[in-house]
């Protein structure tokens, strides 16, 4: 009787787990779209390069960067949901000074172009390898055409559904590769709390890789996209705050797992074999030697998932930043109840950000890894403006009443501002050496 009595309870528990998983997949969305949009080429390359060149030494920087970004995005989400004026995030920045929408609008044109270029170029390379038809430029064109077709429908709804599928693909591919490589948990633990910073070795300097990691993970203009995803989903009222926070926590948990898995592949497979990542094919070739053809195929499937999941989200999100910046400068308010997703200006700017990056996929242009590291190091230049402005508007009681930042959030924002100001200055000085 005991066994019989326990059986339904066990089945119920299993059913409860799958029911919760199904409900999570159905109810969550903006955080998943945001995390997969922000990951892309930056996480893939900087994590793999860091792991292959420095082992686990810089892993603490990855953890720190993700923590910083979670705080920044959660504050932005709270502003979008609670602000009493019904403002978009850029309207809040514009109330500080018009220089903010001017800077964000111009920066979004350049960074949206370069970041989308990474995703399109890398997706083409992955499809060329998996198909056996070695014409990456043609495949990049196919990626853009497929994105345009998807964009013709309800953009956000289509992107969210696709992202949830690709999240499963990414998790399976990269965790599978990491587990197969047989990492030492103690090494991973020491890497996350050891605060080590290696000497300048490897194909790319530790400083450039470190700044690229902060730029691609902790911040960049991509952070400003998140409130628009909340608008698209309809999470714009105070009762949405709890699910918004839980959605973001779940999504960042997935991001940490995937990023660490990519890092482990670099540390456990690339580094012991002396592989320096100068091209995405270097990673695949090492996996062929280590795991056979199947390992490389799984890797490229994950590469395509992590890159293509960012193409539409990046182009569409940056399109909204550019158009909203234009509206702020032309004194046209875009309330959080408006639907930027259906604005024709957003569609055409998105098309611009999808087609112009194809120039970087033309044979003979800058290599994929070099393009990624340079773009993501450049991304850090926008973070001081984002952090300083956010520090001001998120502490304004006239906008948020009693929903302003707590002391911990203010310390994190202030520390992030100082860190990125230093990084931006050092990076700019390196250009003039």
TrEMBL record:
NCBIfam families: Nramp_1. Its main location: membrane. This is Mn2+/Fe2+ transporter. The keyword Cell membrane does not apply. It is a multi-pass membrane protein. The keyword Transmembrane applies. PANTHER family: METAL ION TRANSPORT PROTEIN, SOLUTE CARRIER PROTEIN FAMILY 11 MEMBER. It comes from the Bacteria.
């Amino acid at each position: 009787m005991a066994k019989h009595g326990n059986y339904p309870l066990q089945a119920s528990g299993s059913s409860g787990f799958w029911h919760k998983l199904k409900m999570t997949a159905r109810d969550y969305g903006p955080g998943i779209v945001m995390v997969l949009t922000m990951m892309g080429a930056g996480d893939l390359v900087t994590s793999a390069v860091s792991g292959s060149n420095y082992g686990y030494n810089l892993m603490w920087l990855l953890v720190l960067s993700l923590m910083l970004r979670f705080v920044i995005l959660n504050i932005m989400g709270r502003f979008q949901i609670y602000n009493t004026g019904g403002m978009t995030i850029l309207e809040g920045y514009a109330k500080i000074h018009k220089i903010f929408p001017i800077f964000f609008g111009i920066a979004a044109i350049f960074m949206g172009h370069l970041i989308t270029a990474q995703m399109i170029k890398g997706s083409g390379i992955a499809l060329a390898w998996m198909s056996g038809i070695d014409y990456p430029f043609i495949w990049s064109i196919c990626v853009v055409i497929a994105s345009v077709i998807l964009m013709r429908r309800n953009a956000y709804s289509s992107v969210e559904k696709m992202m949830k599928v690709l999240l499963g693909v990414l998790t399976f591919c990269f965790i599978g590769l990491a587990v197969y490589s047989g990492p030492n948990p103690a090494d991973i633990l020491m890497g996350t709390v050891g605060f080590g910073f290696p000497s300048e070795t490897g194909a790319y300097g530790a400083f450039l890789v470190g700044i690229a990691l902060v730029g691609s993970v902790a911040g960049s203009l991509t952070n400003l996209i998140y409130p628009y995803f909340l608008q698209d989903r309809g999470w714009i009222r105070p009762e949405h705050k709890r699910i918004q926070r839980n959605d973001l926590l779940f999504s960042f948990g997935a991001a940490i797992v995937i990023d660490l898995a990519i890092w482990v592949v670099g540390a456990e497979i690339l580094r012991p074999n002396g592989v320096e990542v100068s091209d995405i094919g270097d990673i695949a070739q090492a996996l062929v030697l280590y795991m056979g053809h199947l390992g490389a195929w799984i890797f490229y499937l994950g590469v395509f998932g992590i890159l293509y999941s960012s193409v539409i989200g990046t182009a569409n999100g940056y399109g909204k930043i550019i158009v909203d910046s234009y509206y702020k400068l032309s004194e046209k308010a875009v309330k959080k109840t408006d639907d930027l997703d259906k604005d024709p200006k957003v569609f055409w700017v998105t098309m611009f950000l999808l087609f112009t990056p194809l120039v970087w996929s033309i044979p003979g242009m800058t290599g994929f890894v070099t393009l990624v590291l340079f773009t993501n190091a450049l991304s850090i230049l926008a973070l001081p403006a984002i952090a300083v402005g956010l520090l001001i508007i998120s502490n304004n009681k006239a906008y948020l009443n009693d929903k302003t930042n707590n002391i911990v959030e203010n310390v994190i924002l202030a520390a992030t501002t100082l860190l990125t100001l230093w990084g931006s200055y050092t990076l700019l000085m390196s250009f003039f050496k």
